[in-house]
Amino acid sequence: MAAEAAGGVRAQSRATSNEERGTKIYAIVESGGKQYKVEKGETLLLDRLHAKEGEKIDLRAVMFRDGDVVTDPAELEKVKVEATIAEHLRGPKIRVFKYKAKKGYRRRAGHRSELTKVEITDLKQLTRKPAAKKPEAKVEATAEPKAEAKAEPKAEAKAEPKAEPKPKAAPKPRKPAAKKTTTRKAPARKKTTTRKTSGSSSTRKGSSSGS
């Protein structure tokens, strides 16, 4: 009888656990190119997020389950996954060693991942798409003093009386440019050359023979 009672208790516990699993609300979110399964109240480690500690952020859901599975992008826009930045920390040290035999090659390096710990504070599906967040008022507050500072110098510049224009000096008369005198060189004389003719040489030979 005791064994039967124990078996009945186990069966009831299994049934209740299955019911709890069926009614669990969870979502799969994406951050830093990775996907994580989250539930309300859980904490998880993400790649470093550019947010201050204690600041609230919204994570993008790629799947949501609340009895029915939601994967439609239009319906997922209505899913709200809100998290709070708990702390920024670094992961465990990873040591890297490179070695090549008979080459005298040794390289050592280390790496620690930059992580952010977040806590899921809210997980639900809204009836409509949430409104886009308005830009922070700090930007407007910093922009207004700059506009006022720029407007003041202009107003002062307009209030100052304009100085009287100085009389223009009469243009100086320009002197005519002096003409350059060019001297032409006389053409070179041609040299006269006298050529000896064969007739003169023959007459000279005849005269010498007659004599």
Could you give a short description of this structure?
With 211 residues, the chain is an alpha+beta fold. It has a domain at 26-132.
Describe what you observe in this structure.
With 211 residues, the chain is α+β, with helices and mostly antiparallel strands. It has a domain at 26-132. It contains 4 helices and 10 strands, in the order αββββββαββββαα. Strands 2-1-5-6 form a 4-stranded antiparallel beta sheet. It has a 4-stranded antiparallel beta sheet with strand order 3-10-7-4, with no helix packed on it. A hairpin with a 4-residue loop joins strand 8 and strand 9 (105-111). The longest helix is centred in the C-terminal third of the chain and has 23 residues, at 137-159. The radius of gyration is 51 Å and the shape is elongated. The N and C termini lie far apart (183 Å). Mean pLDDT is 76; it is low at 1-9 and 13-19.
Please supply descriptive tags for the structure shown above.
29% helix, 10 strands, 211 residues, alpha+beta, four-stranded antiparallel sheet, single chain
Overall 3D shape: elongated
Strand order of the largest sheet: 2-1-5-6
H and E string? HEEEEEEHEEEEHH
Structural class: alpha+beta
Note the quaternary state here: single chain
Q: Total number of helical segments? A: 4
What is the makeup of the main sheet? 4 strands, antiparallel
Q: Rg to the nearest angstrom?
A: 51 Å
Give unreliable regions as ranges. 1-9, 13-19
Mean pLDDT: 76
Determine the fraction of residues in helical runs and give it as a percent range.
25-40%
- Beta-strand percentage? 25-35%
* Distance separating the two termini: 183 Å
How many strand segments? 10
